[in-house]
């Protein structure tokens, strides 16, 4: 398909109640469009860095200057998709209900 383009956006969500009770540790960091993942079980492993079209930090509260709101995600990604009519697809993966 001529002019086809793939864009990838990732977003880290807040911990759910179970994760909070278990005192889970966030192993994700984001800076610009780069997402960094550290394996806490193997600290000697280097942090892995991945670059996407968009990396959205929503793990904390809106008071955090790095926090990305749903409105911002829509402005960056959703609005463009709606302008394409029915010529796009969206794949969403991960836990829901947070």
From TrEMBL:
<dbReference type="GO" id="GO:0003777">
    <property type="term" value="F:microtubule motor activity"/>
</dbReference>
<comment type="similarity">
    <text>Belongs to the TRAFAC class myosin-kinesin ATPase superfamily. Kinesin family.</text>
</comment>
<protein>
    <recommendedName>
        <fullName>Kinesin motor domain-containing protein</fullName>
    </recommendedName>
</protein>
<dbReference type="GO" id="GO:0007018">
    <property type="term" value="P:microtubule-based movement"/>
</dbReference>
<dbReference type="InterPro" id="IPR001752">
    <property type="entry name" value="Kinesin_motor_dom"/>
</dbReference>
<dbReference type="InterPro" id="IPR027417">
    <property type="entry name" value="P-loop_NTPase"/>
</dbReference>
<keyword id="KW-0547">Nucleotide-binding</keyword>
<dbReference type="GO" id="GO:0005524">
    <property type="term" value="F:ATP binding"/>
</dbReference>
<dbReference type="GO" id="GO:0008017">
    <property type="term" value="F:microtubule binding"/>
</dbReference>
<keyword id="KW-0067">ATP-binding</keyword>
<dbReference type="InterPro" id="IPR036961">
    <property type="entry name" value="Kinesin_motor_dom_sf"/>
</dbReference>
<feature type="domain" description="Kinesin motor">
    <location>
        <begin position="5"/>
        <end position="98"/>
    </location>
</feature>
